[in-house]
Amino acid sequence: MRACKKIMKWLAGVLLIIVVGLVLITLHSLYYSYGMMIFGEHSAAATEMFWESEKLWGSIYTVAVIVIAVSTQIVRSFKRRKK
After folding, report:
1. Mapped to the 3 state alphabet, what secondary structure does 37-71 carry?
2. pLDDT above 70: residue 79
3. Would you give the distance in Å from CA 65 to the centre of its chain?
4. d(CA 8, CA 35)
5. Is the pLDDT of residue 8 over 80?
6. pTM value > 0.85
7. Cα–Cα distance between 42 and 60 in angstroms, integer?
8. 26-60: b or e for each residue (b if 16 or more CB lie within 10 Å)?
9. Which of 34, 47, 55, 82 has its CA 20 to 30 A from that of 1?
10. Nearest alpha-carbon partner for 19 in 56, 72, 53, 27
């Protein structure tokens, strides 16, 4: 039961990091996609640019965070076994 709580706490932490990062990526994408409308960019082009950048950076960020979190957890488990 204690191991299950540890895993759930770890997953909640990873999920929180991913959600916060995705919110920041979304804000960044919104600023750079719709901010260009000031300079005469059309709304349809801005929307297309927003979704393309959101998919690209969101997926890269999510995969990177998951890979780092899982690899760190694996290394920690090997270090605990050696002691």
Report:
1. HHHCCCHHHHHHHHHHHHHHHHHHHHHHHHHHHHH
2. yes
3. 6
4. 39
5. yes
6. no
7. 27
8. eeebeeebeeeeeeeeeeeebeebbeebbeebbee
9. 82
10. 27
